[in-house]
Amino acid sequence: MDMNIVCLDLEGVLVPEIWIAFSEASGIPELRRTTRDEPDYDKLMKWRLGILREHGLGLSDIQRTIATIDPLPGAKEFLDALREETQAVILSDTFTQFATPLMKKLGWPTLLCNTLEVAQDGSISGYKIRISHSKLSTVRALQSVGFETIAAGDSYNDLEMIQASKAGFLFRSTEQIRRDHPELPAFETYEELLGAIRAAL
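User: That's the sequence. What structure does it adopt?
Assistant: Structure tokens below.
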């Protein structure tokens, strides 16, 4: 019986980085920073919210950009092929208010992520992190109820879940992260990643 669950990061793995897309749409280059650049997610988000406030931008401005984003080429097909063989869950530090339109385009996979606090005027006043170290905590919780996990991601905040899993892979990661973690297999195509996951099942 299949007791595996594949845990995938979202941005950079299945869909483009939302903040980079919004940075380009809004013409605010500072918003390009992601968890590939800043390992401390809390610090990164507080900084982003400060920039949004400074520019008078709210949730609807970001959602307008998200509506124009499509999954990465081949991502839905990869996910469909994977879900025919095993269970998959997406673990992300993004927010439900950002990710829902993208989940629709990916065929509604299971997503565990955070939520934004939005003021009445539509500005983003804060955010609720589901649990600290959410990716690692979720992987450990799945393992505690008898599942083995296989994980893949591209950023600093994915390393804990990758290292805690039975098999873990870097996907389209940065040169720096690949150099720092030569022990982790690193892939660039969905075919390679699917093959590695199949081998680990």
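The radius of gyration is 17 Å.
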